[in-house]
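Please produce the structure of this protein holding FO1.
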Amino acid sequence: MTATGNILALTGGVGGAKLCFGLAQAIPDPRLKIVVNTADDFVHLGLPISPDIDTLLYTLSGRSNESQGWGRADESWQALAVLEELGAETWFQLGDKDIATHLWRRQALAEGLDLSTLTGKLAGKWGVTAEILPMSNDPVSTVVETVLGPMPFQHYFVKHRCEPPVSGFAFTGIEAARPNPRLLELLDSAPPAAIVICPSNPFVSVDPILSIPGLWQRLRDCAAPVLAVSPIVAGMAIKGPTAKMMSELRMPVTAHAVAAHYQQRYPGLLDYFILDDSDATLVDDIDKLGIHSAVTGTVMTTMADKRRLADTLLELIA
Ligand code: FO1
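Below is the modeled complex.
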């Protein structure tokens, strides 16, 4: 691991949070800066929901429901049961402990705190040493274009269980969104040793972050190497709808197609693309895109897997 310098990770929820957990074990101090997608955020039952931020907070503080991938461990569901009795919308499941997080966030926003500041406070209360940076304090919302028409992200993801075939994505509010000021301050004052794009969904987790005006160019132009870990392994996504989306978008379902997507949308951003051992034959094709590659085990099933991948990335960076 480099002796100095921040590691800047860009992530969505579940898959990316696993790598961030490994990185947080390897870098147990505030040098780990995690930029989190907020385009999944929405208001439900009057509560401001930030699913990816909460997944990171719960994962890094040991509070997450590992098997579910979202929400808290040892959760109870009494409020949801009463809401059901009352005929409220319960397709988006909020556990009792999780509701407490949302009540706290709503109060903090009402007191005038921005998303970045209140997220820092939550992280501090829960002993998370990595700095968790919402991509922006301004509202951005993913809209999924589907055969049933455009729908807000959580309606597509949870209510419709990612079933309707997709044809594209839009990020409402993106033109006016400014990068988190703390992120810009860090890029100015403490340029990172490396930028890691986590194995999150390219279309609905990473693209919203990199679509904030000027941000990807800013990341490309800083001296740090940019590494992206493939979310596709042997033609499959480990979790979530990435592979399904790729086939509906008529893309080959390969790690190479993910690298090509990044290279086409953000030319020159990626320096390294990290492939799983099972995709070692793709090295030459990634090379032809003008991106170096490294091959390692990228599937993170156990705690040890997460730490091993993090250590491998840090060795590569060093
Ligand atoms: N995902 C589900 O599939 N079903 C749910 O009911 C659900 C509730 C939920 C509540 C709070 C939260 O922070 C996340 C929640 N998620 C749920 C996960 C989340 O909507 C998605 O995993 C992310 O937006 C995709 O990264």
